[in-house]
User: Which sequence fits this backbone?
């Protein structure tokens, strides 16, 4: 009778939590630039556009700016553009989507959507950070895959 191999995965590695927090923070920065920039544009210009449309554009722009930022970070780590872009898109897309959706659902729930105020931004950032962080930890711990 053969023994089945037991996975060595666990949730208690402080080093992995620290590294995944750093990766998640970079992703949050990239996503926030496009997301908040889009919402702020519509808020300041008062262009008549449906809230759901603004939030959809904010999510798309957040994904784009996150990919751009992560690509630049990876290129600074000596990856060529093509490899850096593919890595930025492939390895953290689930993280970015969950982050963006969580931030925009939080905004919608607290303000009615597409409104940036001094008190909602920190809450959106906290929710945006906490949502993908366990996934980023798991991916880093189980597969040693990180985006930075």
Assistant:
């Amino acid at each position: 009778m053969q023994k089945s191999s037991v996975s060595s995965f666990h949730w208690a590695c402080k080093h992995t939590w620290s590294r995944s927090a750093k990766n998640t923070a970079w992703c949050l920065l990239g996503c926030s630039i496009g997301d908040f920039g889009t919402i702020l544009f519509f808020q300041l210009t008062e262009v008549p556009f449906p809230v759901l449309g603004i939030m959809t554009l904010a999510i798309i722009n957040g994904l784009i700016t996150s990919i751009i930022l992560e690509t630049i970070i990876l290129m600074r780590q000596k990856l060529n553009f093509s490899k850096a872009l593919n890595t930025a898109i492939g390895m953290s897309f689930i993280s970015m989507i969950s982050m963006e959706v969580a931030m925009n659902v939080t905004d919608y729930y607290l303000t009615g959507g597409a409104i940036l105020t001094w008190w909602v931004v920190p809450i959106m950032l906290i929710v945006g950070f906490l949502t993908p962080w366990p996934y980023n930890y798991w991916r880093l711990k189980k597969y040693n895959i990180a985006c930075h």
